[in-house]
């Protein structure tokens, strides 16, 4: 006999997506669609367990429409006798009394899912599925935990069950994904856990430390261009009384993100060149980022128009961003200040230039005019 389980995390449902402008509603649907793919796979393959490792929602206040959609999905799992277990993460755990309860709590109250609500102390469930005794510990993210404090320091887990799982939402030392945190030390994980299913890192990662398989399923949809090259999805595992029998990463149809870097070359009709290179990337399904780079003068940017690029790419991609963060504008050379002179010195300099280029007759006139002018200036107090 064996037990099958799906592990997912970091679904980030209902993000603000404000930077997508008029496409923000469609972008929110992308995140929900990828989570629906997880549920559709579960309904088709009928695992015994669905584990959700935190950050199901992107914020503490997801829309009512999204909450209702998730309730419907969890109900469909319950109807097929698939048990759902959830912890909250950085985004959907309340950080103050004013924020109230996690938006996940309603699903625990509905009994369509079990929510490990206490972030201070792990809750331990004893399950029996297909003749296999399972010890399942769940620990939600604690926003009041100090970064240097190991959240598992108080975990005492002396399970004698045949297979043991820890579900949590924390970074674990030795795994990475763009976050400078290491609050869980592998040495603090009780060695009788067979699997640690964790959320937080958005990239799929899995490896054994001792006898424990530590698994990050990653996020189901891309959250930023930092994840441009990451595959998105969830994990399917099967285990018996002693071991993991199989493990598979299932990809979701996350919206592709692609970056195009273009060097700004003023001498080569830069706007036409940028449009031409962008056109090669056109795909109505992708999120395109055009990075303009190079070393240029301010004058050479006189013909540059970001709005023109965005207008050209509109409706030819799902959405387009244009950035100039890597464009270095050279400062103009500083003008050397004129030497400090006095009015009399300037007067003399002016007449000397006239005298040097004059004929003999004109020279006498200029010399006389110089003397008279000097006299007049001196009378007025010039020096």
How far do the termini sit from each other?
Answer: 108 Å
- Largest β-sheet summary: 6 strands, mixed
Uncertain spans, ≥5 residues at pLDDT below 50? none
Give the ordered list of helices and strands: EHEHEHEEEEEEEEEEHEHEHH
Q: Which strand order do you get reading across the main beta sheet?
A: 4-3-2-1-11-12
- Strand composition percent: 25-35%
Q: Structural class of the helix and strand makeup?
A: alpha/beta
CATH architecture classification of the largest domain: 4-Layer Sandwich
Count of discrete structural domains? 3
Distinct helical segment count: 7
What labels would you give this structure?
383 residues, alpha/beta, Purple Acid Phosphatase, chain A, domain 2, six-stranded mixed beta sheet, 7 helices, 28% strand
């Amino acid at each position: 006999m064996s037990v099958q389980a799906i592990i997912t995390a970091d679904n980030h449902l209902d993000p603000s997506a404000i930077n997508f402008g008029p496409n923000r509603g469609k972008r929110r649907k992308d995140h929900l669609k990828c989570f629906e793919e997880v549920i559709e796979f579960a309904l088709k393959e009928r695992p015994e367990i669905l584990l959700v490792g935190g950050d199901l929602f992107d914020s503490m206040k997801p829309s009512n429409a999204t909450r209702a959609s998730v309730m419907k999905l969890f109900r469909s799992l319950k109807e097929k006798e698939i048990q759902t277990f959830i912890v909250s993460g950085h985004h959907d755990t309340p950080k103050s009394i004013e924020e109230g309860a996690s938006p996940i709590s309603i699903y625990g109250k509905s009994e369509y899912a079990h929510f490990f609500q206490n972030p201070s102390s792990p809750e331990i469930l004893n399950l029996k599925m297909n003749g296999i005794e399972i010890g399942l510990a769940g620990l939600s993210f604690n926003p009041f935990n100090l970064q240097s404090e190991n959240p598992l320091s108080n975990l005492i887990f002396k399970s004698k069950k045949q297979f043991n799982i820890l579900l949590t939402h924390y970074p674990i030392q030795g795994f990475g994904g763009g976050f400078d945190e290491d609050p869980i030390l592998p040495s603090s994980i009780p060695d009788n856990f067979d699997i640690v299913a964790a959320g937080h890192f958005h990239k799929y990662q899995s490896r054994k430390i001792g006898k424990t398989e530590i698994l990050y399923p990653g996020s189901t949809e891309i959250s930023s261009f930092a994840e441009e090259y990451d595959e998105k999805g969830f994990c399917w595992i099967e285990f018996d009384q002693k071991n993991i029998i199989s493990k598979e990463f299932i990809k979701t149809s996350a919206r592709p993100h692609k970056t195009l870097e273009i060097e700004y070359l003023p001498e080569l009709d830069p706007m036409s060149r940028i449009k031409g290179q962008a056109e090669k990337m056109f795909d109505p399904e992708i999120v395109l980022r055009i990075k303009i780079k190079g070393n240029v003068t301010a004058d050479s940017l006189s013909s540059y128009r970001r709005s023109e690029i965005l207008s050209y790419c509109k409706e030819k991609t799902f959405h387009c961003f244009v950035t100039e963060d890597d464009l270095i504008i050279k400062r103009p050379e500083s003008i050397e200040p004129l030497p400090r002179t006095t009015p009399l010195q300037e007067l003399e300099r002016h007449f000397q230039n006239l005298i040097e280029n004059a004929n003999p007759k004109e020279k006498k006139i200029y010399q006389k005019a110089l003397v008279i002018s000097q006299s007049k200036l001196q009378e007025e107090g010039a020096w």
